[in-house]
Structures are given as structure tokens and as C-alpha cells.
Amino acid sequence: MPPLLPPDSTAAGFIQPTLPPAPPRHFCTDCGVSRTAQPKRCGQACQFIQPDYPVLETAVHGRTRRLPGQSVDAPAEHSTDELFFGPHERMLQAALARPLPGAQWTGITTRIAEKLLQNGEVDAVLAMAPHPDDPWRPMPVVVTRAEDMARCRGMRMGYAPLIALVEPALQQGYKRLAVIGIPCQIYALRALQPELEREHGLEKLFVIGTPCSDNTTTERFHEFLALISPHPEDITYLEFRADYHVEIRMRSGEVKALPFLSLPLSQLPPDFFPMTCRTCVDYTNTLSDITIGYMGGQGQQWLLVRNARGQHLLETLGDEVVVKAPGSAGSRAGAVKGFLKNVERAAGGLPLRRMPNWLRPLVSWLMPRIGPRGLEFARARVEMKALETMVHLQREEPARIKTMVPEHVIHLVRPYGLKPEASTTPK
Questions:
Q1: Where are the domains of the chain?
Q2: Which residues fall within 8 angstroms of residue 301, CB to CB, at 6 or more apart?
């Protein structure tokens, strides 16, 4: 088992373990399982091999998501939205009354973890911090002091073996943990949780999840930054917002909002996003206790409280957080159908259709006003990911459809004419 490095004198509660290199894996996002003492557990813990969401949803939340046609004792809107977002008890828009400096939004995620440490409810938090050599590169860390959570604020881009830290942390005596992670990391964590409890002494686990649809290497992310700014080294912040803009901030203090349509996506190489991210079926991190992201918020963060532990995590903030019901407007159908056509072209090796330059400003102005907003925007993004999964698997890895694609994804793609049968289209 990889040992934890002793903390230095300036960061006594901020520990970066030494980890072995990742063995070569196909369909891998380096969640960290392959770097543990038992790397063969990838077979049971990987989201991209043979996931079983109904079993894990039941283990985590006490039930599976409500699918269309099921007879359930719950409001109809919950049944519909659980198809898209997974099991949840509440959905909210939220913001800290006093935003924290350096946070990606207002700092809800790191503030919850900070409060857990302050209140003595956990011994350590596993999270991401910026690598000392590159602030965009994620570095998995074990945080044991509340004040050190401030160093984990902000967005990173790249792969990071977070789950490799769990067993070393438990060996150090940190038996009550909180973990902040993206879906592929959290799936592996939940799959291994019974073993961690039974054999390694895990006593308590809080899971704070963030949504994720497309990741790439840190090196490739720097290529993207170079396409959107002549001075990429000066970019300190980047966020995809639910108003169809990407916000970037510069060291000078300048803030820019770039319309999605102006992004140079057609200039990115075909493998910019790996096949794993193009075939991810868990955009909303359904196995977390609480999901905190942007998609269903309109200028605020979007919270999905999934179970009693998630409700407790929200309550730790007390009156520090301001919440309200999420809104929903517009129709997603046109946007999703247009996305599907582009994905089918890209998967077939054809270039993306580019919108004429004269039309871009008009459409960029219209989208935040008549396009899907709030929860309808979130539903659109989830359907897009489901369609992207099916198109790429049918073309590149048709044999994986049977084992990789859960039932809820079939429900999501069916209205758009896609079926789960393997494609006969030659590669």
C-alpha cells in the first residue's frame, strides 16, 4: 500500500500521498483503483466495465431511481426528473450568503467539508488541490484541518487518482471520511465501500459529488486555453455557465463571458475528450449524498439532496446558505436534436457543421432567452450525454453496449430514435 508522506511544517493538515504509476488500462480515467495494492479490483469497481447502478443506488439511497411507467408513491415531477438526475429528495438553487474567495462559484462544496472538520464529524476530507507546478492540474490530497480546505477551492482539469488515497488514509487512523469527487471516482468508491468498511475500518462516509461530463488531460486543457485567449497563461478561472456562456477571468482582473457558439470546438483534435468521457452515463453523480453543480441553476449553484446524509450536509451550513426552488423554461428538443446530428457526424469522421459567422451573434443572443433554461437546460445536457454515449459505443465499441449502458439511458435516448442494438455500421 502506498505510504502517506509525512506532512511538512507549513501544511500539517494537508497531505499528498506518494502513489505508484497507473498501469495501462483501456477505458480508464485513472480514478485511483488501479494504483492501490489490489489493482484487479478495477473489474468490480469501474464504471466503464460492468456498472450496476440499481444495486448501488439501492445500497446508497435505499432505493433506485424512479423510471417512467413505474408505480410510485411520489409526486409525478420527481418520477420524471429522477430519470434524468437519479435518486433525490430535493432539488434547490443555492448560494453562500458570503461567497468565499477563490471558490469556483460561492464555495458551497468546500465550505461543507470545512464545516465537517470544524464540527469534528470527520477525521479527514479527500479532495483535489492545485498541483504546485501547475494550478490547473488536480492533485489528490488528504485534508485534516478545516482551514486547509481553502486550498481546495476552484476548478482543476485532468485525471487524478483520488480513490487511491482512501486506504492509506484509513491506515493512518482516519476512519471517518468525507470525499469530494467526480462520478467515475464516486462509482468506484461506492463499489468498494463494503470492503472498506469490513476490512479497513471505515466507520463513516460522506460523499459530496460534483457533476462531470467531459474531462481531458491537463496538457490538452492548456491547448484549449490557448485557443480561447492569446494569453492563456494569464487565465485564472474558467466556468461553463448555464446561460450559454463560458466565463474566464484574467490575472489583470478582467472578466470575459464567451458565448458557447464562439468556442473553437471544431479546432480541437478528435481525441481531445477520451472515449470514457464520451460514453459516461453518470453526468449528475447519482451515487453521491449531495450533488453540487451548475446545470440546473440560473446564476446560482444547483443542489440535489439525495438522501438523509445529503440533507445533513446541507444543514451544516445553517443560515450561511440561501436556497430557493429551481426554475425551468424553454424547450430542449431542438437543441438536443441538433446536438445529436453533430455527434453522428463527428463519430462518422465528418467535420462538425460550422454556423456562419454572421449568424453566431444572433443565435448567441437568442439562446439564453428562448433556449432551455434551469432544469430544462439540465435535462438537455443529460439527454445529450446519453445520446453521445450510444452513438460512440455503437460505432467504436458495440459489444460494450450490453454491459455499459444502464436501463435509464435507454429511456433517455429512445425518444430520439436510438436503440440499444449494436450498430452494423463499419468503422
A1: 14-213+280-326, 216-272, 328-427
A2: 93, 94, 95, 105, 106, 108, 292, 293, 294
Cα 70-72-74 angle, rounded to 5 deg: 135
Q: How far apart are CA 53 and CA 71, in angstroms?
A: 20
Distance in angstroms (rounded) separating the CA atoms of residues 33 and 22: 9
**3-class state of residue 304 by DSSP:** strand
Q: Rounded to the nearest 10 degrees, what angle do helices 108-118 and 308-315 cross at?
A: 90
For residue 208, what is the enclosing H or E element? Answer: strand 204-209
Quick one: which of 337, 254, 329 has its CA closest to 298? 329
pLDDT digits (tens, 9 = 90+) for 91-118: 999 999 999 999 999 999 999 999 999 9
pLDDT in tens, 174-220: 999 999 999 999 999 999 999 999 999 999 999 999 998 688 999 99
d(Cα 242, Cα 381) in Å, to the nearest integer? Answer: 10
Q: Cα angle at 51 between 45 and 52, to 5 degrees?
A: 110
Q: pLDDT tens for residues 250-276? A: 999 999 999 988 888 778 888 888 899
Q: Give the span between the Cα atoms of 309 and 82, in whole angstroms.
A: 18
